[in-house]
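User: Can you help me understand a structure? I only have the sequence.
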Amino acid sequence: MDYQFLEDFKKLSVECPPKNYKPKNMQVFRWVFNDMADERNFTPRYFLVPQTELEDLEKIADSKIKDTKKCAMFALSFFDSEQAAKDRFDYFLIKSGKKIYKRLGTQIAKCTISENDGLNEEPNEIGHFNHHPVKDNQYETRFTIISKL
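Assistant: Let's start by predicting it. Here is the structure, written out as tokens:
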């Protein structure tokens, strides 16, 4: 697969995406901002976090831990249900307050991904999983907003 961030993956000391990630055909849910053209909607966390957070990551001595974390930050966060997306957002809202809307999004959107869209980890116990997209995925036109956060 021709991944969206392949050149960044090549700089890591770990395999990215990890070997246990698999292609999937399924409906997925994601936090987005109201304007689907907003670049934050489908930009991985690695490119959105404050520079100080990336500098803290660089200070980790073990390069495998550091690069495993970076690999995860190059992924898009998806959920396996609308309720899982809402529940996790509510957790962050309680933890961080309303400022979280400016960082994470204001809506929940859904899309059906196919095996050609990238590789995915298995959803965890709260329904979250990382997705490493292929180039030219055009998610901004494929996702549809379904509810407010």
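Now, to help you interpret it: Residues 89 and 149 are 8 Å apart (CA to CA). The mean pLDDT is 93. Let me know which part you'd like to focus on.
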